[in-house]
Design goal:
Oligomer: single chain
Strand content: 5-15%
Radius of gyration: 31 Å
Distance between the termini: 82 Å
Order of helices and strands: HHHHHEEHEEHHH
């Protein structure tokens, strides 16, 4: 048994509850199921919403229920993070894939011939980058890789790269550039509007003698 297993067994809420309904209720709540819906789905009948809600709240005040829901929720969050990491890793592999890894050269009758490698000769980690296989005129399997552009776009979305760059681009604009850009957009949209520095200029503070 590893240290991780020992830690899991020692963590509050890590053991499944002996009461099957309690365990089912905790799992539903860990999946963000509302109290009333989870209470009824488990099999506890209650026609009135307020009664079901009160009973569910009373149930969740029990320490073993609280611990179990909290532990299951952490597991779900960890699984989401793990899945995201696997997706990001796969996208980076597609983004960095080299088509040359899928072909090999042979000297035939004094000529250098380039042809696709056998799929069985490709390592599993690079076979995952193949989207589909087409058969050429000589009956050879030619791999077609997933789109690097699509992978790059998905990575930018996951990492919020484009949004950060957009915010930085606007922040780098001077007042004159910002006004000119807004005027150009208004012109393209056919909007007749006066755009100048009046909305940028700071209000003038006038001093009074205190008589007002």
């Amino acid at each position: 048994m590893t240290k991780t297993d020992v830690f899991a067994l020692a963590s509050p809420g890590s053991r499944a509850l002996k009461n099957a309904k309690y365990e089912r209720y905790c799992r539903l709540r860990a999946l963000a199921q509302p109290r009333i819906q989870a209470y009824r789905e488990v099999g506890w009948g209650s026609r009135k919403h307020d009664v079901a809600y009160i009973n569910a709240c009373r149930l969740e005040r029990r320490p073993e229920i609280q611990d179990r829901i909290a532990w299951l929720t952490r597991q779900e969050e960890d699984r989401v993070v793990e899945k995201r990491q696997r997706i990001e890793e796969a996208l980076w592999n597609i983004h960095g894939a080299d088509i040359g890894d899928y072909f090999e050269t042979h000297d035939i009758d004094g000529k250098t011939i380039e042809q696709p490698k056998r799929l069985s000769d490709l390592p599993p980690e690079i076979r995952k980058n193949i989207e589909k296989i087409t058969i050429d005129g000589r009956g050879r399997a030619v791999p077609q890789l997933y789109s690097k552009l699509a992978a790059s776009q998905e990575l930018r979305k996951m990492l919020n790269i484009s949004r950060t760059e957009e915010r930085n681009d606007l922040a780098r604009l001077s007042d004159a550039e910002l006004v000119a850009q807004m005027a150009d957009i208004a012109k393209q949209l056919g909007v007749d509007i006066k755009i100048d520095y009046s909305f940028i200029a700071k209000p003038v503070v006038t001093e009074t003698d205190g008589s007002e």
